[in-house]
Amino acid sequence: LWVNKHRPESLSSFVINCRQAHDLKQLISAGHCHHLLFEGPPGCGKKSLIMALLRDAFGISAWLGTKVSLPIASSAHHVELNLLHVGVYLRPVLTTLLKEMKVACTAYDNDSYIRSYKVLVLHDADEVSAEAQQHIRWLMDRYSDYCKFMLLCCSQPSKLSDSVRLRCIVVDVHNPTVDDVVQVLYFVAKRENLDLQEHFAWRIAKASKNFRQAVLSLEACKLKQYPFDENQVIAIEWENDIVSMARDIIDEQNPRRYYL
Q: Is residue 258's pLDDT more than 70?
């Protein structure tokens, strides 16, 4: 998918969220190790900033992850986990991960302070229970000697406990403006050698809620019809499938439709 193919590879290559990328680059350059909390709505660039941060801090190996059954993405320098996938096993899973990270930690290195630690990336930290959030806070304190760089990602900051937020530097990633989305669409179109007219780019941007949806829409439109027609319908493929299924159900309202 283009949305993954054209994800920025470093903090220097962002065309939007440039201020946040610059601040993170300065943090890495200074060698500071601190928990970070990425706040913002879905699809606004939080994960892109996190992955670029990891790559700038640890090099190419930070992106060469492997998947295991939980599912967990991991590399030599980080472990990435969506807390909603863990369910009731959150406490033992996180505790086990941190114990394993302790073994993986290298000795302190004056030339590369951050590289001395393994990073734990937790997505949807705001969606777990208050009890689970308190356990995250306890882990931050209990394993602070070798887990100094925990990256939390959330869409609704008000649902995250103050005890966790106060232990993090907050990186606020705002919902993109239409101008921001258009800029990203032009960036992707240029890399894909597409002729993208201004009016059509604005139509996609206005119809999209975030960067991810806009890029998915651009790719779907290209697959459906290229060169683009300024008046062609803008919809990503799964939306077309849902519309088709809904029409079939309305046309033939019987139990057989449940098995399609």
A: no
